[in-house]
Amino acid sequence: MAKKIGLDHVQAIAPYVGGRPISEVARQYGLDESKIVKLASNENPLGMPESAKQAMMKAASDLGRYPDSNGFELKQVLSKRLAVPEDWITLGNGSNDILELTARAVADAGDAVVFSRHAFAVYPLATQAIGAKAIEVSADANYGHDLPAMLKVIRSLGDQVKLVFIANPNNPTGSYLQPDAIQAFITQVPENVVIVLDEAYNEYLSPEQRYDAIAWVRAHPNLMVSRSFSKAYGLAGLRIGYGIAQPALTDLLNRIRQPFNVNSLAQAAAIAALQDEAFLLKGYELNRAGYAQLTKAFEQMKLAFIPSAGNFVLVKVGNDDQAGARVNQELLKRGVIVRPVANYGLPQWLRISIGLPEENAAFLEAFSQILKDEKVLA
C-alpha cells in the first residue's frame, strides 16, 4: 500500500476556485468569447488605467533585471499618501499575499484564528495552510460580521487566539461595518491578538461611509490594514496589494515573504494608478450608477438582495439549496458569468459584479428570461 504524501491539514484544504475565465466558458458552451459577459470576479469594468499601461510599458524595457525587492519608489508614494513611515508598509502579490503572510507570521499549528461566517474564503484557507484552528463565528441578521459575538469568542478562547480577520466591506455579502463599531472592537481585542482589517473594496465606500483606518494603525501595534490594487485601480492581472502596520508586524512579514514577491511591472503600474485620481473617480461613479441599475431591477423583480458597499451585489435567486447552482448554469449557457456562493454557505444566492452599463443590461436581460422559466426555479 502506497504511503500517503503530504500533511493532513494541507490535504483537508479545498482549493480556492476563482470566477470562471471567459475562454473556458466559451469552449464549454460553444460561445463567441467576444459576446460573453463576465460579472464574476469583482474586476474593474474599465480595465487598467491608461496611465498604468504607459508606466508598465516603460518598465518592460528592463525586465532582464530583478524587481526592487523592497519596492522603494512605490513605498515612497504610499508613505506620502498615507502619512506613515515607509517601514510601516509591506507589499504583497495581491492583498491575498498580505493575509496569508500575516497568518504565517503570527499563528502556528493548533492556534486559533477567528473570522465571520460568509467572509472571504482566503481566511479559512490561510488558517488551514498553517494547521491552525479555524473559528467561524455566526454572522449577524444581515449576513455581516457580528463583532460583539466575535469579541466574546476571542475572550472565551483566551491565549489560544492569535489572529482575527475582519473585512469592510465584506466579500461576498457587501456588508458594511460602522467605523465606531470597528474602533470599539479593535480597542477591546487583547493586544496579543493580531487584527487584520481587510479593506480590498475601501475605495468604493461613499464619502459618508469613509473613515481613517490608518489612525487606528497608529494607535494599535496589533492592527494590520490590507488593501488591494486589483479592484478600484484595475490591476487584478498584475497581482499587487499592500499592508499597513507598525514595524513590529511589518518586520515579521518581511522575514517570511518571498524576496521578489511583487514584480517590476506591477510596481510601476501601481505608482501610476495611485496618482490617477480621474480614473479612480470615474470608476467610483460608474460603480454607483451600476449599483443603482442592478438594484432597481432586483426591486422590480421582487428579489431580495443585500445592500452592498462594494462593487458587487448579492441577490437571492430561489428558496432551495440548488437555486443558485441552477440559475448560474442557465446564465452560463447564455454567455453570462456570475459567482455562485454556495461555498460561502449561501447556496440560494448569486454574487453579481457591477460592470459597464451594457454588461449589466445583458445580465439583467438573461436573468429575467431565466426567472420566467418555472423549471429553473422549481
From TrEMBL:
Instruction: Give the GO molecular function terms.
Output: histidinol-phosphate transaminase activity; pyridoxal phosphate binding
Which transformation does this protein catalyse, written as a reaction? Answer: L-histidinol phosphate + 2-oxoglutarate = 3-(imidazol-4-yl)-2-oxopropyl phosphate + L-glutamate
Q: Which Pfam families match?
A: Aminotran_1_2 (PF00155)
Entry EC no(s)? 2.6.1.9
- Pathway as given in its UniProt record: Amino-acid biosynthesis; L-histidine biosynthesis; L-histidine from 5-phospho-alpha-D-ribose 1-diphosphate: step 7/9
Q: Which InterPro entries match?
A: Aminotransferase_I/II_large, HisP_aminotrans, HistidinolP_aminotransfase, NHTrfase_class1_PyrdxlP-BS, PyrdxlP-dep_Trfase, PyrdxlP-dep_Trfase_major, PyrdxlP-dep_Trfase_small
* GO BP of this protein: L-histidine biosynthetic process
User: Is the Transferase keyword given for this protein?
Assistant: yes
On this chain, the residues bearing N6-(pyridoxal phosphate)lysine are: K231
Q: Spell out where the chain crosses the membrane.
A: none
Q: Which UniProt keywords apply?
A: Amino-acid biosynthesis, Aminotransferase, Histidine biosynthesis, Pyridoxal phosphate, Transferase
Q: Which domain of life is it from?
A: Bacteria
Q: Is Ribonucleoprotein included in the keywords of this UniProt record?
A: no
Q: Which cofactor does it need?
A: pyridoxal 5'-phosphate
Q: Which residues form the Aminotransferase class I/classII large domain?
A: 35-362
Family assignment from sequence similarity: Belongs to the class-II pyridoxal-phosphate-dependent aminotransferase family. Histidinol-phosphate aminotransferase subfamily.
UniProt subunit comment? Homodimer.
Could you identify this protein by its name? Answer: Histidinol-phosphate aminotransferase
Q: What is the lineage of its organism?
A: Bacteria, Pseudomonadati, Pseudomonadota, Betaproteobacteria, Burkholderiales
Originating gene? hisC
